[in-house]
Design a protein that fits this description.
This protein is of the alpha/beta class. It contains 15 helices and 21 strands. The strands form four sheets. It has a seven-stranded mixed beta sheet, sandwiched between helices. The protein has a six-stranded mixed beta sheet with strand order 16-17-21-18-19-20, sandwiched between helices. Strands 3-2-1-4-5 form a five-stranded parallel beta sheet, sandwiched between helices. α10 runs parallel beside α12 and α14 packs parallel to α15.
Length: about 450
């Protein structure tokens, strides 16, 4: 049986992923030698190298040391990879990222944030509230700006905050004391096959919550989930919930609102983050922090100082004459929420949206919903589908999606030509969206508009 105390040298296959890199940081900061492979360099892998990790980008089994104690891999790694095939022949334990995370969480009071949308922002908000007030470490599915990291470390931490990923049923490796479930919209149908099987997986996750623990969720989801633990409800505006919002208003481009808590207590927030969906996330994080015993005033202070997560409604350029926002949205519901937030902020400006579809299966399964959400933009620009782990599906490409969009102001553009195309379009508000590698061209787009 593998024990964390036995690990002196660890190898990550796919170390550049957001979840994998957080695990790598966990081990590196404990003095363990961390090595790994990824397909391409990125700003994140550069940071990991600067932190002392040995990373290569050539699929070469000879670069894998023979004296490693364990291999951690992500399900996104293709089994055709030469290093994967070599590792299968090695006499060394080989565990999924989620299994390793489960091992780390075993002796911790775990606060797990799950949901098909909102889990990264909610995890970052909860971490922001707890850090400095409670002994906490956290694994976040994005780079939290307050920490400039996806991993927050307190060696003495007894509390662990972790983003609980439903992909590949990864969250079933966790045994939470407190779990937040933000949403259960259909997604990852390439894994689950149906929305009903996805919902069953969330039920299995909820069944893993300690009987003395808490499920924090929205009332409509309790029509599906049947928890055996304490239940806490939250909402944007339903005053019958345990935690809800009142007095929502915009003041100097900040969302100001009060979170009503049990026993007539109130968290008054002046939020620099856009979107009512992010207010809901703040309510969920407040509920979890309240259960954890953080003082209401401390919750207020830390939410007021929350800076957001990179690529979650991130302002790249914010000028009077031009605004550029980048977002990770890759599901129709997320795109709908992001566009709505932009429209509320800039009701009198034309919005040009660039979307890079993520996965052939997701594009196929939700094409009509994608088309409807994107049609609300003033101008729609589509990039080719980012395949990630998938092989192409005949007939499913960017043009397939483009043809479904009713708005006639639409066009497909290559990544290479995108910066020049956008510079010629000169939009008032630009929004880029996607979970693939669209983030790699954000800097190039920014340079085009900075040089104007």
């Amino acid at each position: 049986m593998l024990s964390l105390t036995d690990i002196k040298k660890i190898y990550f296959l796919g170390i550049g992923g957001i979840g994998m890199s957080a695990l790598a940081r966990y081990f590196c900061r404990r003095g363990i030698a961390v090595l790994g492979y990824d397909k391409t360099p990125s700003p994140l892998t550069t940071q990991l190298q600067q932190e002392g990790m040995n990373i290569h980008f050539e699929d070469n089994p000879q670069l894998i040391p023979q004296d490693i104690d364990v291999v951690v891999y992500t399900p996104a790694v293709p089994h055709s990879l030469a290093e994967w095939k070599h590792i299968q022949q090695m006499e060394v334990p080989c565990v999924k990222r989620s299994q390793m995370l489960g091992m780390i969480s075993t002796d911790k009071e775990t606060y797990a944030v799950a949901g098909t949308h909102g889990k990264t922002s909610t995890t970052a908000m909860l971490t922001q509230i707890l850090y400095g007030n409670k002994p906490v470490s956290a694994f976040i599915g994005g780079i939290a700006k307050n920490f400039n990291s996806n991993y927050v470390d307190d060696n003495q931490a007894s509390i662990l905050v972790v983003e609980a990923d439903e992909y590949d049923r990864s969250f079933l490796s966790l045994n939470p004391y407190v779990a937040i479930v933000t949403a259960m919209d259909a997604d990852h149908l390439d894994i689950y096959g149906s929305k009903e099987k996805l919902e069953q997986s969330f039920q299995d996750f909820v069944d893993r919550i300690s009987k003395q623990g808490f499920l924090i969720t929205k009332k409509p989801l309790l029509n599906i989930l049947k928890p055996q633990c304490n239940v806490v409800t939250y909402s944007l505006q339903d005053s019958d919930c345990d935690y809800y919002v009142k007095n929502l208003r915009i003041v100097s481009n900040r969302q100001c609102f009060d979170i009503v808590c049990p026993k007539n207590r109130c968290v008054s927030v002046s939020f620099p983050i856009a979107g009512t969906h992010n207010i809901e996330n703040a309510v969920a994080a407040t509920a979890a922090a309240d259960i954890c015993g953080v003082d209401i005033q401390k919750i207020t202070e830390n939410l007021n100082n929350y800076l957001g997560v990179k690529r979650r409604f991130e302002y790249v350029i914010d000028r009077l004459d031009f605004v550029y926002i980048d977002d990770y949205a890759h599901h129709p519901k997320e795109i709908e929420a992001t566009i709505l937030a932009v429209k509320k902020l800039y009701p009198n400006k034309k919005i040009c949206g660039v979307f890079q579809p993520h996965l052939y299966t997701r594009t196929r399964d939700f094409a009509d919903d994608f088309a409807l959400a994107l049609s609300s933009l003033d101008k729609i620009v589509l990039l080719d589908i980012y395949p990630a782990r998938e092989e192409p599906i005949e007939g499913i490409d960017a043009l397939f999606l483009l043809n479904k969009i009713k708005n006639p102001n639409k066009i497909k553009v290559s990544k290479e030509n995108l910066p020049d195309f956008l510079a010629q379009e000169a939009p008032e508000v630009l929004l880029t969206m996607g979970a693939g590698d669209i983030d790699r061209i954000v800097v190039k787009i920014k340079e085009k508009f900075d040089n104007e």
